[in-house]
Task: inverse folding
């Protein structure tokens, strides 16, 4: 068995059921495409939660060079907030964060000697997905412009949501 944290050991874990590795991509770019496709199909957004990098060069040799963690946009990314509001105003829309954090998480492992990326994906959400979740989802500028164009053409809002 290969040393823990190496690509070989993580690929061995991928073969097992209920292991700490359940996804594999050929490159980091492939993982990014999969991640965005998954979010768009399910109707949620990702937030980068953490990046772990080795503290010294001896930890990198043959082992993971970085671990990236992404969480559902409705989850808290951790820590107490330091900002103290100057006024007592309430937001009209409210916060998109849930009181109980959403368990959806993607942890991705990058290796120095290979393009291959492995990861662990928890697909369970503690909230509704799809059109119900859209008010809590960031809409990129290009998609916003596309929606605006459809609205100018008098396309009904329900039809726009169905198209997207």
Result:
């Amino acid at each position: 068995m290969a040393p823990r944290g190496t690509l070989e050991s993580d690929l061995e874990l991928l073969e097992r059921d209920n292991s700490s590795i359940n996804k594999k991509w050929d490159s980091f770019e492939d993982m990014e495409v999969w991640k965005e496709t998954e979010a768009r199909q399910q109707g949620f957004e990702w937030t980068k939660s953490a990046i772990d990098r080795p503290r010294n060069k001896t930890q990198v040799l043959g082992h993971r060079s970085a671990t990236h963690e992404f969480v559902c946009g409705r989850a808290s990314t951790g820590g107490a907030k330091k900002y103290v509001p100057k006024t007592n105003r309430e937001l009209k829309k409210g916060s998109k964060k849930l009181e109980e954090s959403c368990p959806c998480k993607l942890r991705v492992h990058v290796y120095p000697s290979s393009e291959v990326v492995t990861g662990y994906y928890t697909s369970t959400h503690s909230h509704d997905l799809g059109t119900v979740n859209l008010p809590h989802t960031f809409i990129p500028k290009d998609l916003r412009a596309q929606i605006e164009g459809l609205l100018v053409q008098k396309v009904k809002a329900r039809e726009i949501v169905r198209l997207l």
Notes: The mean pLDDT is 75. Residues 7-77+96-130 form one domain. The radius of gyration is 20 Å.
